Amino acid sequence: MEPTLTVRNLTIEYAARRGKVQAIRKVSFDVKRGEALALIGESGSGKTTLGLGIVQLLPATARITSGDILYRRQDKTGTPPIEIPALNLKGNSLRQFRWRECAMVFQGALNAFNPVLKIADHFRDTAKAHGSLNGKTLEERGKYLLNLVRLDAERVWKSYPHELSGGMRQRVLIALALLLEPQLIILDEPTTALDILTQRNIMDVLKELRTKLDFSLIFISHDLSLAAELADRVATVYAGKIVETADVQTIFQAPTHPYTIGLINAVPTLTGHKDDLTSIPGSPPDLVEMPTGCKFHPRCPLADERCKTEEPESEFAAGDHWVACWHWQRAREALKSYG
Amino acid sequence: MRSIIELHNLTRTFQVKRSTIKAVDDVSLAIQEGEIVCLVGESGCGKTTTGKMIAGALAPSSGAIHYMGQNISALSKTGFKKYRLGVQMIHQDPYASLNPAHTVYDIIAAPLRHHGFTKNEAHTQERVRELLELVDMTPPDDFLEKFPHQLSGGQRQRVSIARALTVSPSFIVADEAVSMVDVSIRISLLKTLTRLKEKMGLAVLFITHDLALAKYFAWEGRIGVMYLGRIVELAPARQLVESPQHPYTQVLLSAIPEADPDVTRRKQRIELRSMDVPSLLRLPSGCAFHPRCPKFDGEKCEKVVPQLTMFDDGSAVACHPVQRMRAVETLRATSLPRT
Predict the structure, then answer these.
(1) Which fold, A5-231?
(2) Of A222, A229, A279, the CB nearest to B188
(3) CATH code for B3-101+147-243?
(4) Chain A partners of B263 at a C-beta cutoff of 8 Å?
(5) What does the domain layout of chain A look like in residue ranges?
(6) Which of A28, A317, B47, B185 is buried deepest, with most CB atoms within 10 A?
(7) What is the pLDDT of residues B226-265, one digit of tens each?
(8) For testing contact with chain B, the best of A197, A275, A278, A288 (most B CBs within 10 A)
(9) What global pTM score does this model have?
């Protein structure tokens, strides 16, 4: 089956006073039908820009300077998928793409509500802007979705946003994202700023939704444990590039990129020992004046002359495992002694 | 070893419109010199308010705080100044806690001069360099003339720590000091803090919602779990995480996702009796956790507030069923025939 989303050579730049910020640099990846892909990166990695780029909701200072995004809608009748080149969409067709084909739940979205509108009105607004659902059908669908995300549909439908807790609002946003049955949903930091028990609830809701409904999921986060919990595949993002992509088991058990390895070793677990933890020295690069060669080299214990001058492209490692590093084959062994 | 900070039945209330909420309710705790104690809990549990009262940023509504064995409200002018210098706070937001118009040098020199810790400008310069080296910002000359916006989040937190150290404190309250810093840098910041603690004999109260981080940082110390204003469990860190006794601690630990897909997807989740999160405005009677508690044990839990009781193994739990069970164990143990 063809992937739901195919991104090729996407480059996104921001115009800043100091110069051009290269937020996403020639990024390529696929999202398979029904899969959950985690884009993991820290501040300045470009992961949010990538998400916004897919739905073309970048700020005015940003420009997509090259690349293709192909979205494939699979109608359930078993017919060949309809291909939509997402970057060519404008106006009405773009509005239709957004929410019907691809919906996004933004970062810090707990404040995304209009405080003077009830939740019901938010549903009506969204339906009106992107589709043709209305009246009784809309109400039924809305309440069905609210129940699906484990909310008291009757009560929430009539509530104002301020009457709901953070966790409840996040679930309403997920329900809203599902309104027009998109086949791709993008979540940007869905559990950040939520309490442990609320986070757990959201994760369980997302897991349940994936078994009941048919959609692909991209979630963007800095939280590795979220990826461990929900993802089928994980892509680590650094300085505007995807440096490693693999299925979730491989990423955690056998990562090969020094950044991925460093990141995993930097996260404390409840069961781990304190001596197993390490930090990655230094900090993410200046996105206007990036280092030459591999952007990770100033922080990488394996960096050599080649790393300083030539930026590695994504190389095929095994099965579905891709990595951009000149030394990926020996990285795991070599980095075992670091700590 | 004597205790540096003692909290005796500390309570803090706030007026919210016409109601009173108890953000901190009857908290008693003794922290020894050089000890690390982590206060964990979800938002609204009172951990930050407790930290602020210890640092002198907020006055208690009732109860007492003792510094070096003396009640702070009974201290002389000089004694009180010693306390205010002796207890320093590091805040969560590295972007909000430094004056953007001051250079790193200004920020660290100011308290040195103001409190007379240095005799002249040359001495101040020397001391600022020393402090920057202490927090691993080397070479210090690279940072002296920089403004906060030119530093990364991690570097800003180091400046905050250096600033706190200018007045030679004996106690640091670190309120979510690494939550807004990139994951890959957190451990290195905590390692710096640990090193400083060892070198300068500091005691640290580390406030966080991240239990895995708490276990790591308080490896040799204790963790206190707070719920709706009260400490519900207090025990040596590893012991608390490996053998939690309070049902709330158990629920929290079971809910935390971990950065290991095998561990996290196979975790046994503990179900709560109710998904409703109680508000501080309408505290449940008796044990505040009883409406959600999976170990709910009848009338006593509903009517009587459990007190934090210390056991022989160094743990303390505020839970009726647990206390009952341990009393039975002690009884059984003492009634065993001697052989």
Answers:
(1) Rossmann fold (3.40.50)
(2) A279
(3) 3.40.50.300
(4) 228, 269, 271
(5) 5-231, 258-335
(6) B47
(7) 999 999 999 999 999 999 999 999 999 999 999 889 989 9
(8) A197
(9) 0.89
